[in-house]
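Researcher: Let's try something more involved. This one mixes different molecule types, so please make sure each is placed in the same coordinate frame as the others.
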Amino acid sequence: MIRVVLPAHLRALARVDGEVRLTIDGALTQRALLDALEARYPMLRGTMRDHVTQKRRAYVRFFACERDLSHERPDALLPEAVVEGAEPFLVVGAMAGG
Amino acid sequence: MSSVRVLVGTRKGAFVLESDGKRTDWRIDGPHFGGWEIYHVKGSPADPSRLYASQSSSWFGQIIQRSNDGGRSWEPAGNRFVYDGTPGPHLWYDGTPHPWEFARVWHIEPALTDPDTVYAGVEDAAIFRTTDGGQNWEELRALREHPSAGSWQPGAGGMCLHTIILDPDNAGRIVCAISAAGAFRSDDGGATWRPINRGLKSNAIPQQEAEVGHCVHHIAMHPARPDVLFMQKHWDVMRSDDGGESWKEVSGNLPTDFGFAIDVHAHDPQTIYVVPIKSDSEHFPIDGRLRVYRSRTGGDDWEPLTTGLPQANCYVNVLRDAMAVDSLDSCGIYFGTTGGQVYVSSDAGDTWSAIVRDLPAVLSVEVQTLA
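Model: All components are placed in one shared frame. Result:
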């Protein structure tokens, strides 16, 4: 079971409380995780990555296991602790005022 | 008894203000979508319970929300605003080519007869349309592909398409306005477009009377006289009597003709309203006095309306989509400020009161008159 923590605004948009739990078959990459997340919650499409290019939005960051994975290739494997559900994958709104 | 529903978009959420026809006691509902920028909320003329809201943030992009019950509940609709084809560049602030990039929806214009058909004006400037209630959006690409588009430049707020006017007498006619490209008109439902800026004069562009490049802030039309258009330009209040074919200045005795908002009385197409703002470098009222100006002659001759509005130490702005009118017998005029006040006049501007004073900065105000 993959655990995903969304920022407050996206939790409100998707109407979820707490962590999202996903089951993903095959290799667990950032792309596979985001595909599964958007399939479960279609209203999140376009909020984390561009509709067409799939490029991460500038003010969205991806963290896990105390590492910043934002700049990893979308098809790079995620850490084993995320695969095992020991650690969550964090979608974070970049720190900025406003 | 009739009632009114005021739809307010702010920097940090949407608010719905409701009152009966007296417009003295108000119920304030919100914030909806707290923390998000709500550039615009508008109801369908064909089904007043159907509302659309443009919700956006720099972090998470664009969302379109839809309500089928007058704003009590909302559901996210489609948010895929993708330019049709590969857009060419426009000019950036420094005059260099810049790729067309979608930023947000500035303005939502539901069709006059079908609640599922809606137009959206976006930044970078383009117009989109949905015919399925907001699930899918398609660009009317001919506007962005106009031969002049490569020369369009953003205004200070971005290169936004902020005004969409649908002609009730001519189903194919659409008027839109872009900062800072100017006004454009289609007579065939968006298949083709042409600039309608003859008569505009802007001293901030190299050719002051150029066909495009004018920073039009807003355009208003009375549905009974769709060929008469009123424009608040960056500087200058303008009027056209021929559907935008030509414009003449009607700033007349205004204390300053810079401003953003402009609207027309619901029952008198010759009565119009603006909120003069000091200048393009000082976006607040002259002398700290918030004054709406009314012309009963379609321009040129203006009178200040001050009763109930702050006449000292007021330094707010009133943005382009933040004024609206209701259609009750005694026409109500509404506007919102960047200070978070929403003002109402239930007597066509003679007297004013604040419905609410401490909202986030108001981006847009629309009014629905309900049976």
